Amino acid sequence: MKKHTIIHQILLLLLTTSFISQAQSVKKASKQKQPNFLFVLVDDQPFDALGLSERYPFLKTPNIDRLAKEGANVENFFVTQSICSPSRASFLTGTYPHIHGVNQNNKHVDPNWDEFAPYSSHLQKAGYATAHVGKIHMAHYTGKKHIRPGFDYWFSFVGQGKYFDPPVNENGKEYQEEGYMTDILTEKAISWLKEKRDPNKPFSLNLWHKAVHQPHLPAPRHEDLYVGKELPTPPYDTHKETFKGKPEWQRKKTFGFEWKKNLPIPSELPELEWPINYDRNMQLLRCLVAIDESLGKVLATLEEMGELENTVVIYSSDNGYFMGEHTFLDKRLAYENSMRVPMLIRYPKMIKEHTQIKEQCLNIDIAPTILNLAGIEKPNYMQGESMVNLLEGKKEKNWRDAILFEYYVDSYWPYAGPNQIAVRTENYKLVDAFLDNDIDELYDLKKDPGEMNNLINVEAMIK
Question: What's the total number of domains in the chain?
Answer without folding.
Answer: 1
